[in-house]
Amino acid sequence: MSLVLEFAYIGKAESIEELAKRITQTPEYQKLSTDIPLTFGSDDLLMTKIENVMRLSLIPVSPEMIGALIEEFFELAYLGALNTTQLYRLYVGKNILNQFRQDHGYKEGSYIKIWNGLEDNAVMKSAWETNPDMTPEELYDALKAAYPA
Fold first, then answer.
1. Which residues are bridge partners to 114 per DSSP?
2. What residues are paired with 118 via a beta bridge?
3. Which range among 68-72, 87-91, 111-115 has the greatest average pLDDT?
4. Are 91 and 38 in contact (CB under 8 A)?
5. Are the CB atoms for 96 and 139 separated by under 8 Å?
6. Taking CA 134 as the corner, what is the angle to CA 104 and CA 77, rounded to the nearest 5 degrees?
7. 94 phi and psi angles, rounded to 5 deg
8. Under a CB-based contact definition with an 8 Å cutoff, are residues 25 and 74 in contact?
9. Greater confidence, 113 or 46?
10. CA-closest candidate to residue 82, choices 72, 74, 92
11. C-alpha 53 chain-centroid distance
């Protein structure tokens, strides 16, 4: 998804508003925008979609590739039983966690990735599950409070 956003924003291929409209109109995205509980797809189909997303992420950027990447990405999310809220939380949560890592010595090698027996990704996910209405800033603060300094 970051590649898609980068292509639209930095490459000026289309505005963020145009990209958002295009994304929300795809059948793949619309399947995620439901209150119906989603179920996991088969392992074989999940692996195929993962491989497709990886392949599309590694080829030169073009409008056609971006369209295909959008479709494959949201189909993968659907097969992974992620709705739009869960996908948003994972995307923003990972962004906040990456910022937290940088702020706490990741590049220098002093960052602690295992917190009281849990990997930092699991701590981040748990924090947001405990308080699903928190803002990204509150998530950062929750990570800060949980970090074994």
1. 119
2. 115
3. 111-115
4. no
5. yes
6. 85
7. -65, -40
8. no
9. 113
10. 74
11. 13
Helix 120-130 vs helix 84-103: crossing angle, to nearest 10: 130
Looking at the chain, the whole-number percentage of residues with pLDDT higher than 70 is: 95
* pLDDT tens track for 3-23: 777 777 776 777 878 888 888
Write out the two tokens for 135: 């803002």
Counts for the chain of helices (H) and strands (E), in that order: 8, 2
Q: Is 114 helix (H, G, I), strand (E, B) or coil?
A: strand
Q: How far is CA 31 from the centre of its chain?
A: 17
Q: Which amino acid is at 6?
A: E
How is residue 1 written in tokens?
Answer: 């998804």
Residue holding tokens 């491989």?
A: 51
pLDDT digits (tens, 9 = 90+) for 13-57: 778 788 888 888 988 888 888 766 667 778 888 889 889 989 988
Please say whether the beta carbons of 115 and 123 come within 8 A.
yes
**Encoding tokens for residue 104?**
């706490």
Residues in the chain: 149
